[in-house]
Amino acid sequence: MFKATVFTIFPELFPGFLGYSLTGKALEDGLWSIEAINIRDYATDKHGSVDDTPCGGGAGMVMRADILGSAISANYSKGKIIAMSPKGKPLTQDMVRQYAKEEQLYIVCGRFEGIDERVLEAYDIEEVSIGDYVLTGGEQAAQVLLDAVIRLLPNVLGNEESTVDESFENNLLEYPQYTRPTEWQGRVVPEVLLSGHHKKIADWRLEQSIKTTQDRRPDLWKKYLDSKKV
Ligand code: ADE
Prior knowledge:
Helix content is 33%, strand content 20%.
């Protein structure tokens, strides 16, 4: 069973969003579990300080290597440790698929200006970003990452929610979807989707996926073309 261990100064934020909907049901059903470790429990002063000013000066505070190191040492057994950070490697569906194969994933939620680099080195921690923007902390980012991982775990998605056709599965964005009513405010559902002709529907969907991907994600479109070459 997949287990996530999260290091945070806000353990009360977990499971948070992950306690709802599909991921919440899967948590209830015992398909995955989560433990939130309060980094402050490893502080050495009576204020529970976990941060200090940056060496070399500059804005903000830095998470101390000794405190975070103690928290990790006391709770780590084996497996991958990642840290959520805007300077991390951008998260992709390929990375999500790899994480979903792990039995145990450790996630450090950064706060302040960053984490002392020495603790990242010492524990071979991979920094991961959920996008090119800056959040106030890593907790929301960790929940985004875990949501993407949990839905890929065995038995979490039902047949009706298969991942086969969704965005990123073939380096293409998903085609547009429609449901009833077939006419709404003078707008009609594309005729081909009502034709019952499976081949024509598949061709139309592929064409739409290609158009959307070319328009919105030239980087992904290039990946798609490259994947077709081999
Ligand atoms: N912490 C702050 N910003 C972040 C981001 N974009 N991704 C991951 N963690 C973060």
